[in-house]
Protein backbone atom coordinates (compact mmCIF):
# COMPACT_ATOMS: atom_id res chain seq x y z
CA UNK A 1 0.00 0.00 0.00
CA UNK A 2 2.81 2.42 0.98
CA UNK A 3 4.60 1.52 -2.28
CA UNK A 4 1.41 2.12 -4.25
CA UNK A 5 1.03 5.58 -2.74
CA UNK A 6 4.72 6.31 -3.36
CA UNK A 7 4.50 5.25 -7.02
CA UNK A 8 1.32 7.29 -7.45
CA UNK A 9 2.85 10.53 -6.14
CA UNK A 10 6.18 9.96 -7.94
CA UNK A 11 4.14 9.43 -11.15
CA UNK A 12 2.38 12.76 -10.56
CA UNK A 13 5.68 14.51 -9.82
CA UNK A 14 6.96 13.52 -13.29
CA UNK A 15 3.81 14.55 -15.13
CA UNK A 16 4.75 17.41 -17.43
CA UNK A 17 1.15 18.53 -18.00
CA UNK A 18 0.33 18.71 -14.29
CA UNK A 19 3.62 20.48 -13.53
CA UNK A 20 2.89 23.14 -16.14
CA UNK A 21 -0.78 23.50 -15.16
CA UNK A 22 0.10 23.90 -11.46
CA UNK A 23 2.16 27.01 -12.26
CA UNK A 24 -1.02 28.83 -13.16
CA UNK A 25 -2.62 28.19 -9.78
CA UNK A 26 0.15 29.48 -7.47
CA UNK A 27 0.88 27.26 -4.45
CA UNK A 28 -2.30 25.38 -3.59
CA UNK A 29 -3.60 22.20 -1.98
CA UNK A 30 -1.50 22.83 1.15
CA UNK A 31 1.80 23.12 -0.77
CA UNK A 32 2.43 26.41 1.03
CA UNK A 33 3.24 24.39 4.12
CA UNK A 34 6.37 23.07 2.36
CA UNK A 35 7.02 25.75 -0.30
CA UNK A 36 7.85 29.14 1.20
CA UNK A 37 6.35 31.26 -1.61
CA UNK A 38 6.67 32.03 -5.30
CA UNK A 39 8.99 35.09 -5.29
CA UNK A 40 12.28 35.63 -3.48
CA UNK A 41 11.32 39.05 -2.07
CA UNK A 42 8.56 37.40 -0.07
CA UNK A 43 11.00 34.81 1.35
CA UNK A 44 13.57 37.31 2.66
CA UNK A 45 11.68 37.89 5.96
CA UNK A 46 11.42 34.08 6.39
CA UNK A 47 15.21 33.74 5.99
CA UNK A 48 15.83 36.66 8.34
CA UNK A 49 13.66 35.11 11.02
CA UNK A 50 15.46 31.76 10.71
CA UNK A 51 18.87 33.49 10.77
CA UNK A 52 17.84 35.26 13.99
CA UNK A 53 17.26 31.80 15.44
CA UNK A 54 20.83 30.77 14.40
CA UNK A 55 19.52 28.75 11.46
CA UNK A 56 21.20 29.23 8.10
CA UNK A 57 19.32 28.52 4.86
CA UNK A 58 19.81 27.06 1.44
CA UNK A 59 17.50 28.43 -1.26
CA UNK A 60 16.09 26.30 -4.06
CA UNK A 61 14.47 28.28 -6.85
CA UNK A 62 12.19 25.43 -7.92
CA UNK A 63 12.35 24.06 -11.44
CA UNK A 64 13.66 20.95 -13.20
CA UNK A 65 13.47 18.95 -16.47
CA UNK A 66 13.64 22.19 -18.50
CA UNK A 67 13.64 21.57 -22.28
CA UNK A 68 13.44 25.16 -23.52
CA UNK A 69 16.61 27.29 -23.77
CA UNK A 70 14.87 30.53 -22.85
CA UNK A 71 13.44 28.92 -19.76
CA UNK A 72 16.91 27.75 -18.66
CA UNK A 73 18.39 31.23 -19.26
CA UNK A 74 15.51 32.79 -17.34
CA UNK A 75 16.13 30.39 -14.41
CA UNK A 76 19.85 31.28 -14.44
CA UNK A 77 19.06 35.01 -14.36
CA UNK A 78 16.68 34.58 -11.46
CA UNK A 79 19.30 32.60 -9.52
CA UNK A 80 21.94 35.28 -10.20
CA UNK A 81 19.55 38.03 -9.04
CA UNK A 82 18.89 35.99 -5.90
CA UNK A 83 22.64 35.67 -5.18
CA UNK A 84 23.06 39.45 -5.42
CA UNK A 85 20.12 40.02 -3.09
CA UNK A 86 21.47 37.49 -0.55
CA UNK A 87 24.74 39.45 -0.53
CA UNK A 88 23.07 42.90 -0.36
CA UNK A 89 20.76 41.88 2.46
CA UNK A 90 23.57 40.10 4.41
CA UNK A 91 21.57 36.88 4.69
CA UNK A 92 23.14 33.71 6.11
CA UNK A 93 22.19 31.68 3.11
CA UNK A 94 23.63 29.58 0.29
CA UNK A 95 21.87 28.20 -2.78
CA UNK A 96 20.91 24.82 -4.21
CA UNK A 97 20.57 24.38 -7.97
CA UNK A 98 19.44 21.62 -10.32
CA UNK A 99 21.33 20.96 -13.54
CA UNK A 100 18.16 19.99 -15.44
CA UNK A 101 16.74 23.43 -14.65
CA UNK A 102 19.82 24.98 -16.24
CA UNK A 103 19.67 23.02 -19.47
CA UNK A 104 21.32 19.62 -18.88
CA UNK A 105 18.61 17.91 -20.96
CA UNK A 106 19.11 20.48 -23.76
CA UNK A 107 22.88 20.56 -24.25
CA UNK A 108 25.64 19.81 -21.76
CA UNK A 109 27.91 22.72 -22.77
CA UNK A 110 24.99 25.17 -22.53
CA UNK A 111 24.19 23.90 -19.02
CA UNK A 112 27.85 24.18 -17.92
CA UNK A 113 28.01 27.75 -19.24
CA UNK A 114 24.92 28.65 -17.20
CA UNK A 115 26.35 27.05 -14.05
CA UNK A 116 29.71 28.79 -14.54
CA UNK A 117 27.99 32.17 -14.74
CA UNK A 118 26.16 31.37 -11.51
CA UNK A 119 29.40 30.24 -9.86
CA UNK A 120 31.24 33.40 -10.94
CA UNK A 121 28.64 35.62 -9.25
CA UNK A 122 28.43 33.29 -6.23
CA UNK A 123 32.22 33.42 -5.87
CA UNK A 124 32.19 37.24 -6.01
CA UNK A 125 29.45 37.25 -3.34
CA UNK A 126 31.24 34.57 -1.27
CA UNK A 127 28.27 32.20 -1.45
CA UNK A 128 28.39 28.40 -1.66
CA UNK A 129 26.46 26.61 -4.41
CA UNK A 130 25.16 23.08 -3.97
CA UNK A 131 24.25 21.01 -7.00
CA UNK A 132 21.23 18.93 -5.98
CA UNK A 133 21.23 15.32 -7.11
CA UNK A 134 18.35 14.33 -9.37
CA UNK A 135 17.23 11.08 -11.01
CA UNK A 136 19.80 8.36 -11.67
CA UNK A 137 19.84 9.06 -15.43
CA UNK A 138 21.60 12.35 -14.57
CA UNK A 139 23.82 10.96 -11.81
CA UNK A 140 27.06 10.13 -13.67
CA UNK A 141 26.85 13.34 -15.68
CA UNK A 142 26.29 15.45 -12.55
CA UNK A 143 29.37 13.98 -10.84
CA UNK A 144 31.42 14.44 -13.99
CA UNK A 145 30.33 18.11 -14.32
CA UNK A 146 30.99 18.75 -10.63
CA UNK A 147 34.52 17.34 -10.90
CA UNK A 148 35.26 19.49 -13.92
CA UNK A 149 33.82 22.63 -12.22
CA UNK A 150 35.94 21.94 -9.14
CA UNK A 151 39.07 22.53 -11.22
CA UNK A 152 38.13 26.25 -11.37
CA UNK A 153 35.73 26.74 -8.43
CA UNK A 154 35.97 25.78 -4.76
CA UNK A 155 32.52 27.15 -3.83
CA UNK A 156 30.60 24.20 -5.28
CA UNK A 157 29.55 20.82 -3.92
CA UNK A 158 26.85 18.21 -4.42
CA UNK A 159 24.71 15.49 -2.89
CA UNK A 160 25.22 11.78 -2.30
CA UNK A 161 22.05 9.67 -2.28
CA UNK A 162 22.55 6.68 -0.03
CA UNK A 163 19.88 4.59 -1.77
CA UNK A 164 22.37 4.21 -4.63
CA UNK A 165 24.37 0.98 -4.62
CA UNK A 166 27.46 2.92 -5.75
CA UNK A 167 27.17 5.74 -3.22
CA UNK A 168 30.13 4.64 -1.09
CA UNK A 169 32.35 3.96 -4.10
CA UNK A 170 31.58 7.43 -5.48
CA UNK A 171 32.71 9.14 -2.29
CA UNK A 172 36.27 8.54 -3.36
CA UNK A 173 37.48 11.50 -5.36
CA UNK A 174 35.11 13.75 -3.37
CA UNK A 175 37.07 13.74 -0.10
CA UNK A 176 37.69 17.48 -0.17
CA UNK A 177 34.28 18.46 -1.57
CA UNK A 178 31.49 19.77 0.64
CA UNK A 179 28.70 17.15 0.37
CA UNK A 180 25.12 16.78 1.49
CA UNK A 181 24.14 13.23 2.45
CA UNK A 182 20.51 12.24 1.76
CA UNK A 183 18.59 8.99 1.34
CA UNK A 184 17.33 9.85 -2.18
CA UNK A 185 13.93 11.06 -3.36
CA UNK A 186 13.29 9.44 -6.75
CA UNK A 187 12.02 6.06 -7.88
CA UNK A 188 15.01 4.06 -9.10
CA UNK A 189 15.53 0.58 -10.49
CA UNK A 190 16.77 -2.18 -8.19
CA UNK A 191 19.80 -2.60 -10.46
CA UNK A 192 21.10 0.78 -9.23
CA UNK A 193 19.43 1.46 -5.88
CA UNK A 194 18.49 -0.23 -2.62
CA UNK A 195 14.76 -0.36 -2.10
CA UNK A 196 14.42 -1.43 1.54
CA UNK A 197 14.43 1.25 4.22
CA UNK A 198 16.78 -0.93 6.28
CA UNK A 199 19.47 -1.04 3.56
CA UNK A 200 19.13 2.66 2.74
CA UNK A 201 19.38 3.66 6.42
CA UNK A 202 22.38 1.37 6.96
CA UNK A 203 24.15 2.90 3.97
CA UNK A 204 23.24 6.43 5.15
CA UNK A 205 24.81 5.81 8.56
CA UNK A 206 27.93 4.21 7.12
CA UNK A 207 28.48 7.03 4.61
CA UNK A 208 27.70 9.84 7.07
CA UNK A 209 30.14 8.36 9.62
CA UNK A 210 32.84 8.00 6.98
CA UNK A 211 32.37 11.65 6.00
CA UNK A 212 32.35 12.85 9.60
CA UNK A 213 35.76 11.21 10.09
CA UNK A 214 37.03 12.79 6.85
CA UNK A 215 38.27 16.30 6.24
CA UNK A 216 35.57 18.16 4.26
CA UNK A 217 32.37 19.77 5.53
CA UNK A 218 29.27 17.53 5.49
CA UNK A 219 25.56 18.32 5.59
CA UNK A 220 23.52 15.54 7.17
CA UNK A 221 20.13 15.97 5.53
CA UNK A 222 17.42 13.83 7.10
CA UNK A 223 14.26 14.10 9.22
CA UNK A 224 14.91 10.64 10.64
CA UNK A 225 15.31 11.03 14.42
CA UNK A 226 16.81 7.53 14.75
CA UNK A 227 19.61 8.34 12.33
CA UNK A 228 20.19 11.75 13.93
CA UNK A 229 20.40 10.17 17.40
CA UNK A 230 22.91 7.52 16.29
CA UNK A 231 25.04 10.17 14.58
CA UNK A 232 24.95 12.43 17.63
CA UNK A 233 26.33 9.55 19.71
CA UNK A 234 29.00 8.85 17.07
CA UNK A 235 29.99 12.54 17.00
CA UNK A 236 30.39 12.62 20.76
CA UNK A 237 32.27 9.35 20.91
CA UNK A 238 34.77 10.51 18.27
CA UNK A 239 35.06 14.09 19.56
CA UNK A 240 34.08 15.47 16.17
CA UNK A 241 34.05 19.28 16.13
CA UNK A 242 30.62 20.83 15.53
CA UNK A 243 32.21 23.15 12.93
CA UNK A 244 32.79 20.26 10.58
CA UNK A 245 29.18 19.40 9.80
CA UNK A 246 25.59 20.62 9.96
CA UNK A 247 22.18 19.03 10.06
CA UNK A 248 19.76 19.99 7.30
CA UNK A 249 15.99 19.61 7.00
CA UNK A 250 13.40 20.80 4.55
CA UNK A 251 11.32 23.90 5.20
CA UNK A 252 8.13 23.07 7.11
CA UNK A 253 9.32 19.67 8.38
CA UNK A 254 9.88 18.78 12.06
CA UNK A 255 10.29 22.41 13.05
CA UNK A 256 10.52 21.56 16.77
CA UNK A 257 13.40 19.22 16.07
CA UNK A 258 15.15 21.88 13.98
CA UNK A 259 15.02 24.25 16.97
CA UNK A 260 16.05 21.53 19.40
CA UNK A 261 19.20 20.72 17.40
CA UNK A 262 20.14 24.42 17.39
CA UNK A 263 19.55 24.54 21.15
CA UNK A 264 21.95 21.60 21.56
CA UNK A 265 24.62 23.68 19.81
CA UNK A 266 24.59 21.99 16.39
CA UNK A 267 24.89 23.94 13.17
CA UNK A 268 21.61 23.81 11.32
CA UNK A 269 20.48 24.72 7.82
CA UNK A 270 16.91 24.78 6.47
CA UNK A 271 16.38 23.99 2.78
CA UNK A 272 13.83 26.49 1.46
CA UNK A 273 12.14 25.78 -1.86
CA UNK A 274 10.27 28.60 -3.55
CA UNK A 275 8.96 29.52 -7.00
CA UNK A 276 6.15 28.71 -9.38
CA UNK A 277 7.37 25.18 -10.17
CA UNK A 278 6.25 23.73 -6.84
CA UNK A 279 4.24 20.75 -8.06
CA UNK A 280 6.98 18.11 -8.66
CA UNK A 281 8.73 18.98 -5.39
CA UNK A 282 5.46 18.85 -3.46
CA UNK A 283 4.47 15.46 -4.95
CA UNK A 284 7.88 13.97 -4.02
CA UNK A 285 7.33 15.07 -0.40
CA UNK A 286 3.97 13.29 -0.41
CA UNK A 287 5.58 10.23 -2.01
CA UNK A 288 8.21 9.83 0.68
CA UNK A 289 5.79 10.21 3.54
CA UNK A 290 2.09 9.69 2.82
CA UNK A 291 1.43 10.87 6.41
CA UNK A 292 2.33 14.35 5.08
CA UNK A 293 -0.98 14.14 3.27
CA UNK A 294 -2.79 13.73 6.61
CA UNK A 295 -1.10 16.85 7.96
CA UNK A 296 -2.09 18.77 4.86
CA UNK A 297 -5.66 17.51 4.81
CA UNK A 298 -6.00 18.76 8.35
CA UNK A 299 -4.50 22.18 7.49
CA UNK A 300 -6.40 22.60 4.24
CA UNK A 301 -9.81 21.31 5.22
CA UNK A 302 -10.17 22.05 8.96
CA UNK A 303 -10.04 25.18 11.10
CA UNK A 304 -8.12 25.20 14.40
CA UNK A 305 -11.39 24.38 16.16
CA UNK A 306 -11.64 21.25 13.97
CA UNK A 307 -14.48 22.71 11.89
CA UNK A 308 -14.64 21.83 8.22
CA UNK A 309 -13.59 24.79 5.99
CA UNK A 310 -15.80 25.30 2.94
CA UNK A 311 -13.60 27.44 0.67
CA UNK A 312 -10.69 25.00 0.08
CA UNK A 313 -13.12 22.22 -0.71
CA UNK A 314 -14.73 24.34 -3.40
CA UNK A 315 -11.35 25.54 -4.78
CA UNK A 316 -9.84 22.03 -4.55
CA UNK A 317 -12.76 20.34 -6.24
CA UNK A 318 -12.92 22.99 -8.97
CA UNK A 319 -9.16 22.78 -9.59
CA UNK A 320 -9.17 18.98 -9.73
CA UNK A 321 -12.15 18.95 -12.11
CA UNK A 322 -10.39 21.47 -14.32
CA UNK A 323 -7.16 19.43 -14.31
CA UNK A 324 -9.03 16.25 -15.22
CA UNK A 325 -10.94 18.06 -17.95
CA UNK A 326 -7.76 19.57 -19.44
CA UNK A 327 -5.94 16.22 -19.14
CA UNK A 328 -8.72 14.40 -21.02
CA UNK A 329 -8.92 17.09 -23.69
CA UNK A 330 -5.17 16.90 -24.22
CA UNK A 331 -5.29 13.10 -24.51
CA UNK A 332 -8.09 13.39 -27.06
CA UNK A 333 -6.06 15.92 -29.07
CA UNK A 334 -3.05 13.60 -29.02
CA UNK A 335 -5.17 10.65 -30.21
CA UNK A 336 -6.61 12.64 -33.11
C1 LIG B 1 17.82 19.35 3.21
C2 LIG B 1 17.46 18.25 2.29
C3 LIG B 1 17.93 18.26 0.98
C4 LIG B 1 17.61 17.21 0.11
N1 LIG B 1 18.16 17.16 -1.16
C5 LIG B 1 17.94 16.09 -1.94
C6 LIG B 1 18.60 15.94 -3.21
O1 LIG B 1 19.37 16.78 -3.64
N2 LIG B 1 18.32 14.83 -3.94
C7 LIG B 1 17.48 13.84 -3.48
O2 LIG B 1 17.31 12.83 -4.18
N3 LIG B 1 16.85 13.98 -2.29
C8 LIG B 1 17.05 15.06 -1.52
N4 LIG B 1 16.41 15.15 -0.30
C9 LIG B 1 15.31 14.21 0.04
C10 LIG B 1 15.84 12.94 0.68
O3 LIG B 1 16.53 12.18 -0.27
C11 LIG B 1 14.70 12.11 1.27
O4 LIG B 1 13.83 11.75 0.23
C12 LIG B 1 13.90 12.79 2.35
O5 LIG B 1 14.71 13.56 3.19
C13 LIG B 1 13.15 11.74 3.20
O6 LIG B 1 14.03 10.93 3.92
P1 LIG B 1 14.42 11.18 5.45
O7 LIG B 1 15.84 10.81 5.62
O8 LIG B 1 14.13 12.59 5.81
O9 LIG B 1 13.53 10.27 6.34
P2 LIG B 1 12.38 9.19 5.99
O10 LIG B 1 13.04 7.92 5.55
O11 LIG B 1 11.36 9.83 5.11
O12 LIG B 1 11.75 9.00 7.40
C14 LIG B 1 12.35 8.17 8.39
C15 LIG B 1 11.54 8.25 9.67
O13 LIG B 1 11.68 9.58 10.24
C16 LIG B 1 10.45 9.99 10.81
N5 LIG B 1 9.98 11.19 10.09
C17 LIG B 1 10.35 11.58 8.86
N6 LIG B 1 9.76 12.74 8.53
C18 LIG B 1 8.98 13.08 9.58
C19 LIG B 1 8.12 14.18 9.86
N7 LIG B 1 7.92 15.15 8.98
N8 LIG B 1 7.47 14.19 11.06
C20 LIG B 1 7.65 13.20 11.96
N9 LIG B 1 8.46 12.13 11.74
C21 LIG B 1 9.11 12.08 10.59
C22 LIG B 1 9.48 8.83 10.67
O14 LIG B 1 9.56 8.04 11.82
C23 LIG B 1 10.04 8.07 9.48
O15 LIG B 1 9.69 6.72 9.47
C24 LIG B 1 16.76 16.16 0.57
C25 LIG B 1 16.31 16.15 1.89
C26 LIG B 1 16.66 17.16 2.76
C27 LIG B 1 16.19 17.09 4.18
TrEMBL record:
GO terms for molecular function: nucleotide binding; proline dehydrogenase activity. Substrate binds at residues 98, 284-285. It catalyses: L-proline + a quinone = (S)-1-pyrroline-5-carboxylate + a quinol + H(+). Pathway: Amino-acid degradation; L-proline degradation into L-glutamate; L-glutamate from L-proline: step 1/2. Binds 1 FAD per subunit. One of its GO terms (biological process) is L-proline catabolic process to L-glutamate. FAD binds at residues 133, 161, 183-185, 197, 222-223. Keywords: FAD, Flavoprotein, Nucleotide-binding, Oxidoreductase, Proline metabolism. Its EC number is 1.5.5.2. It comes from the Bacteria. Residues 47-292 form the Proline dehydrogenase domain. It is an enzyme of class 1 (oxidoreductase). Its cofactor is FAD. This is proline dehydrogenase. It comes from Oceanobacillus oncorhynchi.
Amino acid sequence: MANLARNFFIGLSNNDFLNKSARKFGTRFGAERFVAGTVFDAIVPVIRELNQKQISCTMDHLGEFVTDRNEAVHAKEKIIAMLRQIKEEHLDCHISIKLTQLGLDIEESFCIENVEQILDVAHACDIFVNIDMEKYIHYEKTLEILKSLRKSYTNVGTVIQTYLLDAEKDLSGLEDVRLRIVKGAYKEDSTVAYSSKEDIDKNFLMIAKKRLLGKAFTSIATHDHRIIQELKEFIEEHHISKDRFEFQMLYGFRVDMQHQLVKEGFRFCTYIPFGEDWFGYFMRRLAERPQNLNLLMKDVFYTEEDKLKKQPIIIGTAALTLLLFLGRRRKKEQNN
